[in-house]
Amino acid sequence: LQILRETLAIAESREIEMHGRFKPLLSMLARLAPWIGHTKSAEEREVEFNWIRLALEQLVGSMAPDHVVFVVEDLHHADELSLTFLSKWFDNTDVNVRPSMVATATTGHHTDALAANTGCELMETHGLRREDVEYFFKQRLGVDVPEQWMEQVATLSLGNPAYVQELCRHFIDAKILTRQSSIKWAVKVDELLKFQLPKGQKESLRRRLKSLGEIGAEALELVATMDDRAEWAVLRKLLLAGGETVENAEKTIELLIWRHFLYLDLEQSGRYLRLVDNQLRDVILSRVNPEWARALHRRIGDRERKNWMAGTSPPDLAARHLDI
Fold first, then answer.
1. What span, in angstroms and rounded, lies between the C-alpha atoms of 60 and 56?
2. Quick one: three-class SS letters along 63-128?
């Protein structure tokens, strides 16, 4: 669904008339996302996947002669059904129009079946190394840090560049790393070296989450519970339903963007918020007890029920949250 959404956004930005016909389809697929691929029969599952294939192939074809290429990081984190969909699609030699994909993945996962595809070209790469850490901090940020520190960062990353990305968010949060211009950063080296490096990406996220107030944590819990992106206005209404004022709700959302917990996607259809990393969703939901999780689902379900009564949302979306 994310690939379809991005393809639709490209077509929309190029004012390709065809994109309009797929908007209702994407909206319907997004609502059905929790159940897609989990139907009882293989025939029903194939129908669902064919909807997505049809939309992708026609949208990609409409952008010819330009070729669409998707870059996907950590494909091994994708669910098994999505990987099955991609494997069958790229293994089908009868398909003439489809995007290319450049993806990174570790071996020993469900991606191995996709890698065995005849249309797949494998290239072995290494993970994050000390040399990469040195390049980033010394050449890109202009910071002179000890070799031992860079070696420690590379070791703790377990080869995952996302660790350094999250580490930099942590440095920004702690005001160790500050932006001077669009291309220049300033670093407090003494504080950088005193900083206790987290043992992993999730530990860094947990430490950053502890510094949030109750309303900030609640806003993130709502976004994580919604699974997909949250429209700005919808998240604000959900916070208002929890007793917050409009001013506090707006300030909280802006703070979460500024502190790099949420990304803001600006589209013609509105402003959408999403978590900066799937690891963040895991960390957030692991802190939520069952009773509070049900309360969050009920609040989201009540909002969707009102939307359904107003004719702007299907009943199944409200039911999914209210049934929990």
1. 6
2. CCCCCCEEEECCHHHCCHHHHHHHHHHHHCCCCCCCCEEEECCCCCCCHHHHHCCCCCCCCCCCCC
Q: What are phi and psi of 95, to 5 degrees?
A: -85, 120
Q: How far apart are CA 55 and CA 24, in angstroms?
A: 11
> Cβ(322)–Cβ(301) under 8 Å?
yes
The whole-model pTM stands at 0.69
Identify the burial level of 283 via C-beta atoms within 10 angstroms of its C-beta, where 0-12 means exposed, 13-18 middle and 19 or more buried: buried
Where b means 16+ CB within 10 Å and e means fewer, 114-131 reads beebeeeeeeeeeebeee
297 vs 226: CA distance, rounded Å = 8
Model pLDDT for residues 287-311, shown as the tens digit of each residue:
999 999 999 999 998 988 888 888 7
Beta strands in the chain (DSSP E): 69-72, 100-103, 177-179, 185-187, 230-231, 262-267, 270-275
Count of CB atoms situated within 10 Å of the CB of 158 = 12
Residues 10-57 pLDDT 10s:
777 777 665 556 666 555 555 555 445 455 566 766 777 787 788 788
Q: Give the pair of three-digit tokens for residue 99.
A: 């995007």
CB 301 within 8 A of CB 292: no
